[in-house]
Model the fold of this input.
Amino acid sequence: MTEMRSVDTNVGPTVETLQPLVARSAPVPSTDYKVHKDILRYDFFYMCAYCSLMETEASAVRFTIDHYEPVAARPELKSDYGNLMYACEPCNSRKGDRYPPPSARAVGYRFFRPDHDVHPDHFRLEGMRLGGETSTGEYTIDALDLNRHMLRRLRELRLRKMAAEEYISEGVAALRRFHIDRLPPEIKGKVFAAIRGTLATAAEVAAKVDEVLRIEARSPLLGDDPDPDLTSAEERDRKARLRALEALFNASWRGRD
Done:
């Protein structure tokens, strides 16, 4: 996930700061939160607020409206646009009615939200896994299982796509730097036509690479492949960390009583 950048040039040397990725629109208030889905999709770049899975990467994974503060705990925010998140169903179902108590939030244990937080401040990528830089990052990773098999596979495919696109781009850049004007006049036209055809082919190859990787991603992203972590020691450790954290605070971690 890439955050928006801004430059502070008021005083001293130029300082580049990262801004939250999501900038919210201001839709007309409604008592039916579902009417906001289209603008929510747009504001969140058609991407899950928590795991960054995009609609185009998982065509059969359903996307839903999540209430950051669950309705069971904060019914007055049910239709408040600022409380709505665009989320994939796997993340939304894991989040459920989890509601970190004020005492836990005071020391950072809450869910990450891309309209307020900057992703690199809270997460780091370690190979294909996310690590937490803060209590917010650690809690979000464990509570939503952001290192589940599907997401590790997604990160791998994204890296492969980036590498393929970089390779294609390097070849295209080399062609564009070629000095046609240094060639003999009788072959300039033929070389120009050949380069133009090659550039068109490169665009087709880039599109094909994207299509192939998306098709390859389809099976694991749809859950066709069993998740090897479901019964692993790592999965047991994740759940144990959540239980231990909840035990530290003498309060309910759910929106319901």
About this structure: Strands lie at 4-8, 15-19, 63-67, 84-88, 123-126, 129-132. The chain has a mean pLDDT of 82. DSSP finds eight helices and six strands in the chain. Residues 122 and 133 are 5 Å apart (CA to CA).
